[in-house]
Amino acid sequence: MITSPHDDLDSRVRAAAMAWLRLRCTPEDPVVSRSELLGFQFEGHAFPLIDNQLGIRKPQGMAAALSILTTYTSDGARAPYEDAVGNDGLLRYKFQGNPKHYTNVGLRVAFEHRVPLMWFFGIKQGLYLPFFPVWIVAVEPEQSQVAVALDEAQRHLSVDTVTSEIERRYSQRITKQRLHQPVFRQRVIQAYESACAMCRLRHRSLLDAAHIIPDRDTRGVPAVSNGVSLCKIHHAAYDENILGVRPDYVIEVRTDILEEIDGPMLKHGLQAMHNLRLTLPQRRADRPNSGLLEERYERFRAG
User: What is the pTM for the complete model shown?
Assistant: First the structure.
């Protein structure tokens, strides 16, 4: 028997899964593993939240899809978020093969009945950052995709016919703040093994992904090689040009800061960083791009 999206079982499954994610994903540990998602228990029974092989989870017996998944790919494999956002600022998710495949039908049903889904975005092999609830707000069969809203505000936009530039920019900002920035942050922090590259602080909730070239710049892409995992103090100091990083990964503290006399934070938190070397990711592809570092370092020197 297939339950409709309005049946009690369907609503209980969605509510239980999202309640578990809210408890499981904390500021200190916001990502969830593939094994945890496959091992989710619902009312005493195994009920995987993702499909073991497919990107769309449409459980047997349920009419609508429960979740969608974006597999992790390194920055070298493709441009981050390429062709993922429409002119309306809404994200797109591609169909699974044949548009008539049962998983794609499940997405259509989720759209027709306006039920909430979960989106698991890969930030490392076997690790996912969850976004929930999300909604399918349009089916675009010619492009073999659906449009996905990340919050209530985006649900009420006219897909691809946004009536004003203000609406379009607002929607794009939501997508950037709700998905692109958190995914970039987690990918960078994971690459640096959840530590500040300067002081080695390991409290994830106090770590940021600092852009080398700012994201307001057209070249400030959300790639790990354009980021450095820094604690909030060193991120702020980097942004304010209190300290800089040379292309050989050596940290420099501004001369006037080195000459200041103040308390222990200045001495140990900033001045002690001078001439230290960044702790780098193991994967070469994840290390800061030397060309971007050089450009940013020149700005530091000019300041």
Answer: 0.87
